[in-house]
Design a protein that fits this description.
single chain, 149 residues
């Protein structure tokens, strides 16, 4: 685990590579969590996380699914949705004059129906959204909406 101030230096110096998990139900709804942390505090966003050094993409996807949703996913059953860029004027610590740049690999999954999804402490609440509703809601972050346009 990288110490917070060391990680802030990384955030200031380079883009971060991350994965976002687009959990889509059998009825087509998408799971979003309302974020408690920066960047995007207060917005509805897809679960996701930074890939660690020497961590394979598949391992990062499986780790994020377990940590943020409490589920096990089969990476081989994922649908790759593309590469996206997320730019923010803020950073995870709220330090002044340090922006955040993510290169995001987005993967879509159908969640296991036998197990409920439980978001971690990075999210105030979770909700299933119809695509049209999330595209129209100002509380859903633009960087999440782009996945569904």
């Amino acid at each position: 685990m990288i110490e917070k101030n060391a990680f802030l230096k990384i955030v200031d110096a380079t883009p971060l590579i991350s994965v976002d998990l687009l959990m889509r139900s059998a009825t087509g709804e998408v799971l979003l969590g309302r974020r408690l942390n920066r960047p995007c505090r207060g917005y509805w966003f897809a679960p996701g996380g930074v890939i660690s050094k020497n961590e394979l993409i598949r391992d990062a996807v499986e780790r994020v699914a377990k940590a943020e949703l409490g589920i096990t996913v089969d990476f081989d059953r994922a649908r790759f949705r593309g590469v996206f860029e997320h730019l923010y004027d803020e950073n995870f610590l709220g330090a002044p004059d340090i922006s955040t740049h993510y290169i995001v690999l987005a993967y879509e999954f159908r969640p296991p129906e036998e197990k409920p999804l439980v978001l971690d402490n990075q999210h105030a609440e979770a909700r299933w959204w119809r695509i049209q509703a999330l595209l129209q809601d100002p509380g859903v972050h633009e960087n999440t909406k782009v996945y569904f346009r």
